[in-house]
Design brief:
Oligomer: single chain
Structural class: alpha+beta
Radius of gyration: 25 Å
Strand content: 15-25%
Largest sheet: 9 strands, mixed
Number of helices: 9
Number of strands: 17
Shape: elongated
Length: 418
Amino acid sequence: MLGRPILVLTTLVLAAFDSAQPVALAATCEQTAENLQRRYAQTPAYCSSDSAPGFLCSGVVLRGTEPAARDGLYNTWDADAPTRLNDAVSYAFLRSDANFKRLTKDHQSGYILYPIMELQAPKHRYEVLCAYPVDGGTAERSEAGCGTFAQAADPSIGRSCHTQGILDGRAWVTHYEQSTQGDNRNACGFAVNDALNQQAVSNFNAALQAMRNKRSLFFRESELRIKDWSASTPVAQLPIESFFYIAGNERGLANARLEQHRYFRQSNIWVPIIAVTLPQSRSAKAQFVCQSSDQAIAEGTPTPINEYVQLGEWIRRNDVGSEGVEWSLSLEPTPLGREQSTPQGYARMYAEIRRKYGNDYQWLQNDGGGMYRQLVCHLNIARDKDRYNLEPFRHDLSQEDSDNAGCNPVRILEQGKG
């Protein structure tokens, strides 16, 4: 907003890094590799009780991914990424009694989730919906990928295994060999959602047994369908334990480094890269290794705090719209900040602003919800201004209203001024 400041309260942030505020670390790289190796080796029939399936505390839940070619297109962990369909996402489950030798689509990198029972607040608690001993062709199935395929030879054969009386691995292999006709969408999956309790344990163990009984499944990954997190889930709260690549694959390592860097920039959390060796024979075992040379960002690197905004100060200004004196956050963006032009870029810049100034009383005591809209407005119509002045009292109106008001919208409520 335009106006003459009558009082200045300054909070300056000038250093490229704040060495007094180290980045949050959930576990060291070595500890992460050891945890993965331990969970891979453990083969419990259930976890804390006979209603808690083994994936809650053991094994490795991983997703092969292909990162976007450039920043701003999508993140592989986004709820609205191009490969996330049907309100659920496909992951693989790897354990010493549930091995496979390669990832689907020839993926060479991806990320690994914490097991549900090791999640700590505020990490998002996800839910596993169903399990397939092999890729189930879930993108075209109903019920978040756990149901039937409309174009199947007999659509009913794709419904949950236990509802068809398929209760163990041997029965599933017979069903698979007789029913799939070369199309895995004809095979049933094992429901393992929370509401099934003991039945979920039996179903998951049957899926693992089927993987062992059908020898050809070793050449293809298994599939878990996991309910997708909300698009509003903060990046820092996603349950990502590590990024990984297939050991020895240069393209996979390059992708993992790119993902580590992107996640660090958006969350201010350092997540390690782990080299994974998948078993190449049925008697071999997977290996999980931490190598410092693999890390795009060295372990212990402090959180960057001036990526998008290099200076900020709270000032008091006369506001024509409110007819009063209001607090304004006057920001000097970095060159990178001024370049942001996508929703992802806006979100990253706003996250930095919120992290630096969101707990200041000037914001907390006057928060009308419109700071994000004002930021985007400046990037839309005034990105070359020396300073971006954002007032916390302004309400969260539409982006169009904010832009039309020159980034200074004021809403008058029925009971008075807003």
